[in-house]
Amino acid sequence: MSYLSGRRVVVAVGGGVAACTATEIVRALRRLDARVRVLLTESAEHFVSPLTLRELSQHPVEGVGSEHVRHVNPHELAEWAEVVVVAPATVGLMARLAAGMADDLLTGVVTAANVPLLVCPALSEAETLETEAQQHLGLLTARVSTSVLLADTQDRAWLEAGFRYLPDADSVVQLLGRVLGSGLLVGRRVVVTAGPTREAFDPVRFLSNRSSGKMGYALAAEAWRAGADVLLISGPVTLTPPYGVRLLQVTTAAQMKQAVFETVDDILVMAAAVADYTPRETLDHKRKKTDGDWNPVLGRTSDILGELARHSVRPRLTIGFAAETDAVEEYAADKLRRKSLDGIVGNSVAGPGGAFENDHNTVVMLTHGPDAHHAGPATKREIAESIVRWISTLPSGVRHG
Question: Which residues are the active-site residues?
Fold first, then answer.
């Protein structure tokens, strides 16, 4: 189940050549199992096919122009919607929305709907510099429950056509996840660590582990959707950074420790699989193969959570992870006490069904109380949602050990 599954989204399409981007937005929303209804302004019908939008949305298209659209009572559509997306929004349309006008179906729905509004401007490079356009943007941004998405387009054709801002389908659906999210972490600052670290023997070889970073990346994405300001400290992975999340890339355990101590503030979720050992000697050239065994000397890396527990400045809430091959709950509970954590998430990495390099997970969430919270088997996104919900219930500043 996706984070937009079953959510009711009205996509209100303004006029202009950028109206054709609405098809990509509707397609992306339907891919995430959202329920979508589309309404067109009269001018938008000249640039985008109502038949295409009807097929994509699986709903009749609402409007006032051709025989392919129907006219609907604005209040009926406003009552149905959980969120309204205006994409694209021209300068003229933004002016009418900013003024609170309700002189056509689109502005009537926006005025009547007591739901969040996401406005996606389609502005030429010249229009972005106009004082009038900036005033409209300012008024819309200042409105309660209104978000304005200004995403730089990377599409060469649009850039050559002179457009500075256009609604991007992926950005729209990601931001809708936050707009329609739980809001459980609004105002909180969250640092999530993810992935493995690499400890180099030489420029070619390194010591690492099988962590893919998927759980940490899913946690960062879900914390952002829950309203938090999120920093993701990531070891070497092949994943795309979650939308809206700030990324800080590190390689070694020492770099991970430095990043955590320099940035941690409110909530720390230590999901990274930090190497326990590092070579005592790192060569600056490739070590040549020789006959016989190679017995490199390994030393312990810093215990980041252990040192953080003794540090004068530490997070208000510290959540650890325990990746185990057996006795998951027992070992996780022991780590919770030893590291003076506020909570810990234990999971199994044993066998083909283990958490490493897998898209699914099963976890147990523990605090110092008697209750254990279980989640899964489920996708890592769903597990991350359960963990974020659990974190939001924990009291800050309670120290143990």
Answer: 209
